[in-house]
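Technical note accompanying the year-one report. For the benefit of new consortium partners, we illustrate the data format agreed upon in the data management plan: each record pairs a sequence with a C-alpha cell string. No post-processing was applied to the example shown here.
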Amino acid sequence: MRDVPGDGKRLSYYQFGSTAIFASQYDQRFSYCLHVPRGYSEDDDRRYPLVVAVHGTARTVQTCRDEFAGFCEEHDCIVLAPLFPCGIGEPGELSNYKYISYRGIRYDHVLLAMIEEIAGIWRVDAGRFLLTGFSGGGQFVHRFTYLHPGRLRAVSIGAPGVVTLLDADHPWWVGVGDLEERFGTPLDLAALRRVAVHMVVGGADTDTWEITVTPESPRYQPGADLQGANRIDRITALARSFERHGVAVRLEVVPGAIHEREPLIPSTLAFFQSVLSGQ
C-alpha cells in the first residue's frame, strides 16, 4: 500500500504498493496480489513491465510478492503473484498446478486471465512479461514456458523438484512428445529461442525425499529417471535439453545454498535487471 493516506483518482488505497489479495474474476477459486510502485502514475500512458512470481507448494504468495517489491520500486515495474490454493478438486491435493492441467482446469489459462484482468486496471505491459518461480513454482514456470513462449520476455526457473525435459521422444510430463495433442498447442521452438532463460539452484540442494519418482508414485511415467536424482541433476538435465535445441540458458549454482528460495533470489533479480536494461 502507499505510505500516504486516501485513494488515488481511480485506484483505491489498497491497489497501490503491496496490494490486498483479489479474487480472480475468471475463476474465483484462485486469487492474486501485486506490488504496484508507490510512484505509479494514473495520469500518463506509459506501460509498466510485468514480473509474475509463482509460489511453491507452501503457497507463501505474499512473500513471493514482497521479495520483488524493492526491485519493482527501483525499476518501475509491477509484480503479480498468483495464488493456486491446495485442495482444488481433491482435498489435500498439493501439486495440481505444477503440471498445468488438472481435472479440466488449465492453470496456464488461469494465469493468463489474471494478467488480462490486471491489464484492465493497471497499465502493465501484458504482451510479454517476466516469469519466475521456485521449487513447485519452478515446475509450473518451465512447463508454462513450453506452452506460451511468445508471451515471455524472460523466465527464471528456480530449483524445480521434477522437470519436463525438452525431449520429443517422451510424452508429457517426462517430455514434450505429445504437447500439441494434449494441450492443443504445438511446440514453438523459434519463439522459445527468443526467451531469455535463467535457471538457478543451490549448490547443497541434494535432498531427494520429496522428489523421488518411483513406479509406485501417482504421476510415474517411464523415462522419469532421465532427469537425475536430485534438484541439481534435474535442473542441469533441463538446461542441457534446452541447449540441445538451440535455446540459450544461463545456469547458476549458488554455493552452499540448500533448498531455500531466499539465497537464490539475488541471482534472479540480477538476471531480470539485465533483461530490463537490454543487456
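Partners are asked to follow this layout when depositing records. Helices lie at 61-66, 69-75, 107-119, 136-147, 179-183, 189-192, 231-243, 265-276.
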